[in-house]
Amino acid sequence: MHWFTAFVLYVMIWWTLLFAILPVGTKPVADADTATGWRGAPARPMIGRKVLATTLLSLLVWGVAMLIINSGWISFRTGWLALPEN
């Protein structure tokens, strides 16, 4: 796999996991706005921790994906997943 393709795969995994991790541990503001009832953004979003957790988890998932891709266990060129030749 080319280095650019591996980088794009990492960015896609990171972006997907970021949206999976963002809601973890958030609590709404205790006092809602008196006029609208809107609670708005969480009081303590802990963005730095979530970005760090996303980065570490993404490295793990990306490493596993790279092992599977480079191992040849799943191939679209040979085997049962390959397209039929004309």
Rg from C-alpha positions?
Answer: 20 Å
- Number of helical runs? 2
Distance separating the two termini: 26 Å
Beta-strand segment tally: 0
β-strand percent reads: under 5%
Shape verdict:
elongated
Q: Bin the helical content.
A: 40-55%
Question: Average pLDDT across residues?
Answer: 87
Largest sheet, strands/sense/barrel: none
**Helix/strand structural class:** mainly alpha
**SSE string:** HH
Low-confidence stretches: none
Describe the structure in your own words:
The longest helix is centred in the last third of the chain and has 25 residues, at 47-71. It is elongated, with a radius of gyration of 20 Å. The protein contains two helices and no strands. With 86 residues, it is mainly alpha-helical. The protein has helices at residues 3-21, 47-71. Helix content is 51%, strand content 0%. The chain has a domain at 3-22 and 41-71.
Question: Can you lay out the helices and strands and say which pair or pack?
Answer:
Blueprint: H1 3-21, H2 47-71
Summarize, please.
This protein has 86 residues and is mainly α. The chain has helices at 3-21, 47-71.
Based on the model shown, name its key terms.
mainly alpha, 0% strand, 86 residues, single chain
